[in-house]
Amino acid sequence: MVLTAAAAIAVAVASCTPVAAPPPAPVPVPGPSTPNEGPAEPQIRLGLVVGVPVATVSGSAGLSVSDPSGARLAEIPAGEVWRVTAGGAGLVVLAPGGAGTTASEQIEIGSPDPDALVRVNGRPYRGTITALRDRTGVTIVDRVPMETYLAGVVSAEMGRRSLAEQEALRAQAVVSRTYALRNLRRWQAQGFDLYATVADQVYGGAASETPEGRAAVDATRGWILTYGGVPIDAFFYSTCGGRTADGTEVFRAADRPYLRSVADVADDGTAYCSISPRFRWHEEWTGEALRATLRRTLPAAGGGTTASDVSEVRDVRVSYRTPSGRVGQVTIALRRGDVRVDGPSVRQVLRPVSGELLRSSTFTLTVSGAGRRVTRLVADGAGAGHGVGFCQWGAVGRSRAGQDYQRIVAAYYPGASLERLY
Predict the structure, then answer these.
(1) What angle (nearest 5°) sits at the alpha carbon of residue 286, between those of residues 283 and 341?
(2) pLDDT at residue 88 is higher than 90
């Protein structure tokens, strides 16, 4: 029995033993242009909360609630927290005292002051807030200009960074801008372009903006990565562990010339991402904990395995590795036969006791009781995430080593070009 992933996991991965490699050539950069040339700055619609029973809205300034035609439905006084919930085929806006205003399937919530922030579930956001009635409840969407969006993404993804790490932030800004353009309207059917979570890229709104993140966005305004004249698939993740992965090792459709496995190491053989707290990791399961984990994860992964099939685990072994050294398949020997887990599903099935995804698919296994009854399983691994494309901690290491953002993105997307759209 073979279990495969229904969809690739967009989280983070690692690698094998670092191998020294010559420095990559810089990405070719076109001549400068002015912000007025080419397309206008796009607007991005972010799904802040999706399909929830209720969401709260408030503002430091007063807010107006209107329908799509612009007709005002209610006024929210400054500082008051109101609720938006589903009611019949539409929406209901509830004041603190419980008085409600029934609305259509879509409402706009904003302030006359364009600089005022709107709080959604307590978190402040810029832009225009839209509430939609969806199939399961309420979806709240934030519509902002691209560069405003990126200011809420870069530091949310990269954290606070020092002056020596500014080029990593600039690289992340280019990568995140490219990702957003490439995936624009990805969730059109749900009423927005991108999720504000790791389902796409983390958008923390105004609360996640930092001066250094804003500066990185401003310094790279309008620049994206292209191949053949179109935005690339700008995959990124936390920590590669010393070598990135080929796109097809993780994402079946990601057979791209610029998504190739590369050694992510300095001239002395040190991995640029060795500064990551996730560079090396260790997980272990007792026999009982392993059985409990597999009873949950194997049935969820599909393939017909039931919880009762996992009454006994006789072995867990790596069946083969991918060219970049990641685990391509794990075989789990049960009393009723072997179950083979392929690709990204490995991280879903071999979850730590915490229940989170296994940090990466670069690991070795040590088994006690193999061939009889497993009493202990140990995984020693490297990196965090899927490993395709841009390594965030590697970018930090490269920035500390004096590389500029052009060279950093060239290392992770070989053959891609930098191009300014606006």
Answers:
(1) 65
(2) no
**Are the C-beta atoms of 364 and 377 separated by less than 8 Å?**
no
What are the structure tokens assigned to 76, written together?
């929210």
Residue 198 CB neighbour total at 10 angstroms: 13
CB 216 within 8 A of CB 167: no
What phi and psi, each to the nearest 5 degrees, are found at residue 43?
-95, 145
DSSP alpha helices (H): ranges in 5-160? Answer: 146-151, 154-158
Going 166 to 168 to 171 to 172, the CA torsion angle's sign is negative
Each residue of 275-329: pLDDT tens digit? 999 999 999 999 999 999 999 999 988 778 899 889 999 999 999 999 999 999 9
For 180, what's the count of Cα atoms within 13 Å in the CB-facing half-sphere? 33
> Taking 80 as the threshold, does the pLDDT of residue 6 lie above it?
no
| Bridge partners for 120 per DSSP | 57, 123
Mean predicted lDDT score pLDDT of the chain: 90
Q: DSSP secondary-structure letter at 344?
A: T
Distance CA 244, CA 236 (A): 10
| pTM of the full structure | 0.87
The string of DSSP letters for 287-327 reads HHHHHHHHHHHHHHT-SS--GGGGS-EEEEEEEEE-TTS-E
Q: How far apart are CA 272 and CA 403, in angstroms?
A: 11
Q: How many residues does the chain have?
A: 422
Say if residues 210 and 155 touch (Cβ distance below 8 Å).
yes
The answer to whether the beta carbons of residues 10 and 198 sit under 8 Å apart is: yes
Q: Report pLDDT digits (tens) over 124-147.
A: 999 999 999 999 999 999 999 999
**Which pLDDT tens digit goes with each residue over 155-199?**
999 999 999 999 999 999 999 999 999 999 999 999 999 999 999
Element (H, E) at 175: helix 166-182
Cα-only R_g, the chain: 24
Residue 222: alpha-carbon gap to chain centroid? 21
